[in-house]
Design goal:
alpha+beta, 33 strands
Length: about 650
Amino acid sequence: MGGSLVALIAVIVLAFALFDWNLLRGPLARLASDATGRDVRIDGDLKVHLLTAQPRVSIGGLKIGQPAWAGGASVKMATVDTVTAEIRWMSLLKGRPVLPLLELVHPSLDLRRDADGRTNWSFSDHPSAGAAPKLPPIERFVVDAGRLHFVDAARKMVIDGTIDSNEHAAGPQAHAFSLVGQGTLNRKPFALTVAGGPLLNVKLDQPYPFSGTVRMGATHVEARGELHRPFDLAAYSTRLHLSGPDLADLYYLTGLALPNTPTYDLQGELKHGGKDYNLSRVAGRIGASDIAGLMDVTTATGRPVVKATVHSRSLDFKDLAALVGGAPVGKAAATANPTQKVEAAKMAAEQRLLPDAPLDADRLRKMDATLDYSADAVKDTMLPLRGAHLHLTLDHGLLTMNPLAFDLPQGRFTSIVSLNGRGATPVTSVDAKLSNVELQNFVPGAKGAAAPIEGLMAARVKLTGRGDSVHRAAADANGAITVVIPHGHMRQAFAELLGVNVGKGLGLLLSKNNQQTDIRCGVASFDVRNGEMTASQILLDTDVVRVKGEGGGNLADETLNLVLKGDSKKFRLTHVFLPITVGGHFRSPALGLQPGTAVAQGGAAIALGIVLTPLAAILPFVDPGLAKNADCQSLMADAKTAPAPVKGALPTTPAKK
């Protein structure tokens, strides 16, 4: 009996040793085809050695076709001259296979991701877009003269590269893992280098070190980190260094709709686990502004969801221009993209302030985000800004900034900005308020002299427009713009000049007389329709002069067309009324005198009836408190008791109903 059992075992061993495994090439290829949904062929020898603690399988001429959406069987996803693998019996029995050896001789891979996020390296019926391939632990991984062709339609990326790891070779030919590739990213030259630690005798319970660099024109990304476990690409930590002309250029590399910026140089620590990414200890500069913070990204819902907290000790106000599509300034301008350079030239030629760089609303619809930003100080040569605060949300193409606020020495600028990119044409809404602002901060006096105007100013801008850029949305805008000076003081010399009392005004200026006159009320209010600004009320009332204005402006070509008509409140025989014109562009307004319309002075009671009724509606629009606290109320009271205009005064226009 015992002899028969030994004989049977001997026959089985001999059968395995002498069996022609090539007879199973067809059946095994068909099984693999059914399991993967791709055409699988084995054109070379199939060799199997099972009677050992580490069974070995060698497959020659392995060919794997593409899925149907990527070309099918006629196009090969992978070809390998020879695949050799060893596996431990015990690890297989435990359900956690370990490969002591995996060797690929002349592998050629054609990897693809389509515009919908499907990947040909995922064999699941419901693949997670961009999911990292998971390999079993490999103790020794050898790649001999591998080739890689990678096309990512969603990221507009094409890479052709070489993969190699010849540590089993002798002498100078032995080296650790390397991937070197070049191609295009969004049609721009692109180069990639990845280097890994030794793949000979990999420790499965220790992290695996790697480094990588990406270069796309002036954009550079450097990484140095480790896989938490060898061959598990879904969990790693790395130190990042990013630099380039515009953070928005990283969209095709990261899939994140980052804002347009001037040149940047940033560092941070990136950790990736499963579908979550954490970028912490971010520090560096964007333009002339320092920046620090952290960012979390998850793709658990199938689309990136970003949460970020960012802080600056000092924000340069010029760096904000690129955020709304403006061209960079200073050093950043040298590396601006062609669209920004063309836009800068157009803006300079047309003297425009509002940028016309198009917004890519499609990017906004592909991710969600929450951002909290603050700055301790703001540098600006025109405005006395102190701090900045921003809370931003992005929800399926609807971007909301509530608030976008700036602190001033006295007062505050606050705004709510909404950009709806869910439709074919983005719609932008702005509701901005300026409150309790000191006028002397905006109109300082000459060196050693007092400010020509002092007091408080409030303003509100409420506009909604359609367009894929700031300029186009403004050109389509509807709403209102109002500025109010509820009370204050100005140099009497300037007040006299506003009434074109040239003799007295120039005399006071030349004598450097700082005598002041009270501002009882100042209002400039415009209705905006389809980008056209029409003055509904322009009034400046001081103790010595009252000025009324008319006209408007155009947000499309950014031009002004205003006429200011002033008159002294005290009758002067030598005074002649001559209107002042305000024209030119927003960037460079031009002042002048309107010829041929001189009218004799009419006296103190001019035109009160034409300016007062709208104030009851205008003041609450800017600030409800103004209706009770502004000195404009005393002006309205004067209107009820004012005498009839003297002969020769300007004709009275009926009040608006």
